[in-house]
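ok so i was messing around last nite and threw this chain in just to see what happens. nothing serious, just curious
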Amino acid sequence: MITLTQQGNTLAVAGRLDAAVVKQLWPEVATLVPADTSCLDLRQLSYSDSAGVAFLLELWQRAHSRGQSITMMSPSSQLGKLIALYDLEAFFVEEA
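result:
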């Protein structure tokens, strides 16, 4: 499971984000990122599978469709491997 903690305009994501967690979170996907969030801090996301990566991109897309500018920053090394594998570097930054 993951925890989402809002700290100012940063939403910190921690824990494991896999297909089972995505399935549990999906009904709430539209409300998980508050309107004043400009950054998803991923440094404490210890594990993500491909469903988790897709979920993060869905959060990003929904925010952008509302006119919100979101940066996904500081992915863990494990997440970084998936980002590189799927050629998604344009959506993630190492540090803000």
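not much to say yet. Strands lie at 2-7, 10-17, 39-48, 71-73, 92-93.
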